[in-house]
Amino acid sequence: MNDRVPRLPPLNALRVFHAVMRYRSFRKAADELFVSPQAVSQQIKLLEDTLGIMLFDRKGRMVDPTEQAILLAHFVQAGFDEFAEGVRRVTKTGHRNRINVNASPYFATRYLMDRLEQFRTTMPGVVLQLTTMVEIPDFGRDDIDVSVQWGFGEWAEFDQTLLVRDPKIICCAPALAHRVRKPEDLLSMTLLHPVLATNLWQKVLRHLDLQDIEAKGDVQFQDAATMRRATLAGMGMGLVSAIDAIDDLRQGRLIAPLGIDALSTMKEEDIPGFYLVVPRGYRRVKTIAAFCDWIKGEDWSAMLRREMVTDDIPYTI
What we know:
Number of strands: 11
Radius of gyration: 28 Å
Strand content: 15-25%
C-alpha cells in the first residue's frame, strides 16, 4: 500500500483553475488575473499534466469542467478560504479586542456563567463570544480561541490545564433502587454512558473490584444534562455529576444505592474533569492570555466543596 503524500501542483496553477471554474471561461479568468488567455491555458495544461487527468472540455471560448474538475474545485475553494481566514487572523492579532470561547455546556451553565462578569471587569472593552459545543472544536475552522473540555486530558497536541474535577455519584430513580444492593447488582442493570467517555463505567466497575466483567447493556448520551434526565426517568444507572446528584438526592428525585462515597477513593486519573485547552501559540495574543490567566486563577472547586456537605441526605432506601 502506497501511503506517500501526492506531490502538490503549483499554487499559481490552482489559482488559475479556481478562476476558470468560477467564470467557465479562459478569457474572463485572464481578465480577472491580468494575464493573457494563453497564459491561463498554459497553467491549466500544467495542472492537467501534473495531475494526469483532463479538467476541461474546450468548446470554443467556453469550457465545461469534467467530473474530476468539479470535485477538485470544492477542495481548492476550501483551501483558499483557509488561506483567507489565516491572513485575517494574523493581520488582526496585534489589536484584537475579541475572544471566542467554547465551553462544555455543563461547565458553562454550572460554573462559568456566574463568573464571566468578573473577567469582563478585568478586561473592559473586550468582546467575549461564548459557544457550547460538547466535542473539542476545530479551532481554526470554528474560529475558537480557547475551549473548556470535559474529559481526561487527552489532547496532547494542545496546551491543557485541569480546572476542576467532575466526580460522579452512582444514581438511579427511586423505583430502581431496590435492585441494587451491592456492586455486583450493577451488572444486571442498564448503564447510562457519556459518549465522550464510553469507558467511564469500566473505570467505575474496576474501582468496585468488578474487573473484566461485562455489564448487561448500556445507552449512550451526548451530554451530561441528557444523561441526568434519563437517570431521573428511570432508564438505568447514571453517573451523575456530584453537584447535580446532591441536589437530586436531597429532593428525593434520585437514590445513591451504593452510597454517596462509593467512588470517593477512585484514582484521580480515572476521574474526569474540565480542562482549559488552548492551541500552542495562541497565548501570544494579549486577550487570550488574559482570559487564560483569569480562568486558571479562579477556584472552580469551591462550589463542589460547598455542595458536598451531605449529612442531611437520605441517599438510600
